[in-house]
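Everyone, carefully examine this protein record:
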Amino acid sequence: MTVTTRFAPSPTGFLHIGGARTALFCWLYARRHGGRFVLRIEDTDLERSTPEAINAILEGLSWLGLDYDEGPLYQTHRFERYRAVIDRMLEEGTAYRCYCSKERLEGLRADQQARKEKPRYDGRCRELTEPPADAEGQPVIRFRQPHEGHTVVNDRVKGKVIFDNAELDDLIIARGDGTPTYNFVVVVDDMDMEITHVIRGDDHLNNSARQSNILRALAVEPPVYAHVPMILDEAGKKLSKRTGAASVTDYRDAGYLPEAVINYLVRLGWAHGDQEVFTLDEMIEYFDIADINHSASSLNPSKLDWLNQHYMKTLPPAHVARHLAGHLGALGIDPGAEGAPDIEAIVEAQAERSKTLVEMAENSRFFYEMPARYDEKAARKHLAGAGPILEALVGALEALEHWRAEDIHQAVVGVAEEHELKMGKVAQPLRVAVSGGPVSPPIDATLVLLGRQTTLARINRAAEWAAAQDGA
C-alpha cells in the first residue's frame, strides 16, 4: 500500500494558519512513508469560490515549500464522474430519489424541534418505486443510510468513535439541479485518488461516519482518519481575524521565514520529546499522526518570534537575504543598486538584533540611505558637544590605508585614548552620526558596510550639526 494523503481546501478565502498546519501534517506523513501528497481544490461552492482564493492557497503552499505530487485537482472538473457514481448507486439501491418539497421538510424540522428531537429526514421517499402524486420539480438524491447498528471510526487521534446509525440522516448527495454535495464528492474523490489517510480538522469528525458508510456502499474500505484538534488564540478561544486567524501570506508579509512558520506549525499540536527546533528532515523522520495531541493548541506569538530569530541567525545568509530583499523593496530600497552594501553581510550583522525580516529591513535602512533626521534623544545625549570628537574621528579614519574592521577599531580606540575617554564616549557619537540612532551592529562592522566615503560624509554632517547646536 502506498500511503497517500490529501489536502483539500475550499477556495472561499485565504490559506489560514489552521489549514496550513493540516497541509503540513498531511505532507509530512506522506513524505515519511515515501508516499503521495495530493492537492485537491474543493470548489463546488460556485458562489463563494474565487480564483483569487485559489491563487492565495497555491501561493501559501509554495512559500511554505509544501510541494504536492498530484494536483491541483478541481472538483468542478469532475461533475461527470460524480453523476456516473450517483447513477450507479441509484441502480444498486444504495441511493434513492426524494421528492419532498422544501415546505414539507421545513415543517418536519419544526415539528421535531418542537418535540425536542434531533432534526432528521423521516424517510418518506426511502421505499418509493415511483414519484408520489404531489411530486413537484426535480427530486434530490439521498444516500440510503444504514439505520441499524453502529458505525465505528477508529480515529488515529480521537481513538474509537462510535456512531449510532439510527442518528445518521439519509443525507442528500445531489441537489435537484443535479449538483453533488460536499460529503458525496469528498467520498468519490478519496476513492478515485486512493487516499489512504485523511488528516483534517476535528470539525469534520461527524462527517467521517457518513463518508465511511458511503464508501462501504461503493465496496471501498474507508481510509484511516485522523481528526486534529483546532488551534486556539492566546486566550484559549476560537481564532478570529482579530486574534490570529491570519493567512500564511500575512505571516510572510510580517517578516517571518517559511522555515520558522513550518517549525512553529508542527509544534502546534505535535511533539517529539522536548525538542523545539527541527530541521525539515527531522520533522519527516519523527512525525507520526499517532503523536498528535488530543487537545487543542494555542498560538504563542513570542515563540514564533524566537524561532524566526533562530532561523535568521542559523540559516545561510544568502537564503535569508533572498527573503530580506523583498522587505527592503517594500521600503523603496534596491539592495542590488550600484554601491549598495552586500545584503548577505547585512543579514550577518543584523540577525542578532531583529526578530522579523520587517524589523531587520527597517533597522538596516540607514545602510542604504542617509537618515532624514537624528533620533532626538540620542542626538541630545551623544552628539551635542561632540564636535571635537567627531572631527578627530574624521582625521583618524581618513588616514587609514585599508578600510577593514580591525583597522577601524584601532582608529576609534586611538581617538578615545587621545582624548582620555572611555570607548563608549567615542563609539556612541560615531554610531549616532552614521546611523541616526543609538543602536547598530558593532561600530567597526557598521563602518565597513557603509564604506569609507559614506562614513566620512555622515560624520562631517554630524559635526556640522553639533557645531550648530553649540552655536545656538
In short: The first strand starts at residue 4 and ends at 7.
